[in-house]
Structure prediction request, 346 residues.
Amino acid sequence: MKVFLTAFLSTPFVDFDIPGPSLGHLIAEEVLNRAGLPEEALDEAVFTGLDDGEAREAFPYRLPVYSGGGTSARAAREFLQAVELLRAGKSRAVLLAAVQTAPALPSHRPPRELLLWAKSRGVGRALLDETLLQGLARHRAFTGRVEYFDLLQPFFLPREEWRLVAEDAIPLADCSPERAGMEPALSSAPWDYLSRFHLPWLARGACGCLLVGEALFGSHPFPAPVEIGQTVPAVAPEEWPDGAAAFALTQMEHPGRPDALFTGTPSAVDEAVFAGFVRNAGDPAIACETINPWGSDLAAGWAAGCSLLRRLGLAAAWLRGEERRRVLVLEPLGGPAGLGVELVRP
Prediction:
């Protein structure tokens, strides 16, 4: 049976405190509103980034509500389990939500080790700055498109004194070629040129989506649906210690040449290395020319799995353009693990 992703939504990612259950409730209610479904139409709801009590507070309805833990790997596991249940006809609709409630630094390497890792793979300061600035430029261009507010992020959140915010409060918003070059080093070592622009930024927010089976999809007009194709979890072999997500792509039966490739990365350094890895791999199956055409999340909610759901939403919104039929989403899950997901326009 086919599985479809629809009603994908994201709150702004902000640097001020918002309670986790409030974020979870907001995203869950808006997903159902967008889908035009009552809560009783769901078979279950899963909230990664919240504990069981917070998940029940966020979604206090009489249906199974679970906590999916607080890591990107747990979010990926819940996503894969939901897809398999829907394919087997054991579920009709599953709500998935990821909530980043604490500004935890998601990078798995300390700055000095991260830099040495990048340098050993040919990523110098010029390439790192170029990757960062290009990703920011693409993301800014995307936030000006209709799809951004209509499909992905139509939210306003209460701020101090009840002011409202609709866009990400990204500390990188003032980043420019001049500012990137002027940032002081983190230490006195001459090779340590990492700045706050290159490292993960601290933010809170939530993402959500609805997965539905073929039967329900055929009887209800869902907004902006895409079909879930192949889903390939992978653990890279030892000789691929930094390419787990890209390795997942090589495990697909017919990866071909997708219209675009979307990746989730925990820092600008990881993104620069990953882009170079994919572009220089030499395998026609992964020689994709379009990597993150709508920009990078730059680790927004990576630790709680928000990156995966938001990246799926970005890819699904991108597919609504003309002559766009197929896109791949690659998600690193920490260590050698990765996930590849194929999205197809119905």
Summary: The CA atoms of residues 118 and 124 lie 7 Å apart. The two ends are 14 Å apart (CA to CA). The first helix runs from residue 20 to 35. DSSP finds eleven helices and eleven strands in the chain.
